[in-house]
Sequence to fold (559 residues):
Amino acid sequence: MLWLFLPFVVILSGVVAYAADTIARKAGRKHLRWFGMRPKTTALVVAVLSGMGISAASLAAFLILNSSAVNTIAQADQLRPQLEALRKDIRAAQADRDRAQQEAARLREQQTAAQSALKAAQTALTDARAAQTRVQAQARTLEERVQELTAAQRTLEARAAQTRAKLQAAETSLKASQERAQNLDAQVVDLGARIALSEQETRSAQDRARDAQTAAETAQARAQAQQALAQQAQTRARDAQTRAQQAQTQAQQARAQIDTLARDRAQADRALRDAQQALSAARQAMQDAQAQQRAAQQARDALRAERDRLSSERAALITARDQAARDRTRILADLSALQLQQQQLRDSNDALRATLGRLQDEYSSSRAELSATRNTDLAYPRNDLVYAAVVPGVRNLDQFLLDAARSAATRGARGTPAARLTPAARGALETKLRGLNASSFVQCRAAQNAAVGFPVDLSCDARANAVLYRAGQVIRRSTVTLGDLRRMQDQIGELVQDVTLDLTTRGVPSEYVQGLDVGELVPLITRLSDRSGNVAVVGIAARTDVRPGSRVDLYPVLP
Fold:
């Protein structure tokens, strides 16, 4: 409007000068005298008054035709604090922009360091993968060696089982041989006893034979003596002959017994030789069995040594396999740690990129809003109330946000939607609504300065729409010093501000609180002035129940 107003003032000045000059000349020609003044002075007064009238009429016509200029002039004083606040916001935004640039530079440095660390981690991961490949190859070789040794162990165990079976068979045969040897020893002892008995019987028979021979010789000597004496007595001779015949019969019997004993001795000698031969065979068999036992013992010792050696090799291989498994587990753990570190670095890099993008977006948005603020009007200053309403539950939040977007659109905000609530802020709001679990009053304010033609970012808060104060209940009291009207007015204004602060702290928007108007303030001051004393207690109450979602109409209360 300024580019229209300035030409209008210039043209108006020319019109006023020309019209005033024309009117003054006409008044001068008429020689008018007002209030006893000279015609020249009267013409000058007419020229001045006509110029003032023409200027006033022109200005009135211009203001009637341009009511927005009137509003602009009327709101100029009100906009000065806002302009100062906007300048401060611009300076703060510039400081934020500088900090954002510094933060972006720092984030770029962190991103460079993270990329360097990522490259180092990738190099370490490549080395770890190569080491893992080598360890896996070694593990496969060790597993094949273990399988071969396991097969060899099984073969040796089978051979050991066969050897143990043979050893058991040899021990069984050795036991049988020992039993046979023991039987043969018993037979040899029996035969020895029988031979001893036979020899004893032979010696007895030989003794009896020698006794018989001695008796026969004695008998022959007696016979010869008796034959010499036969002549002396025939009776004795016949008796002697009879005894001689008996002796011969006994001698024959003794010879027969000697022959029988000789045959028995020959048989005993043959049995003894057979027994000796059997004993020799048994001793040889026992020696063979002992040799087989010693060979079996040696084979068993060799098998035990082989088994111990294989057990040692198996234990060493198991130890090597366990060590390889531990190394593999450690390498896999290192690989997992490297992969986790790489993933963390990737996540950090993504987070840094997201943060950098968000900062760039915020910087672009702040720059665009700052540029729009400089060039266009603000739809919503920062912390200005955008929309507030009672929300029954979380399910009604979408409709509430749509209504907020429509309300923002009526103030000049543009976008899809015109009012935005970030996902994090919406999640926090939904959590709070679920926690309240009742009808809640939600108020959303502008998170930052929003220019006309741009969407407005919301900052929302929810409070339970419960009764805070009953109608007529005194919200706050204060002691007012009487006497000075200006001081009383200031104290009452501070009391109203304290009440408003109390209500806004408890969830009532400051835009919903209506302070004391002139029609209530003037009678209150009048009543206080009429009171005696130095001080008086003044209270502030609401005409209706105070809820976060209700309009609050305050009025003073005097006891």
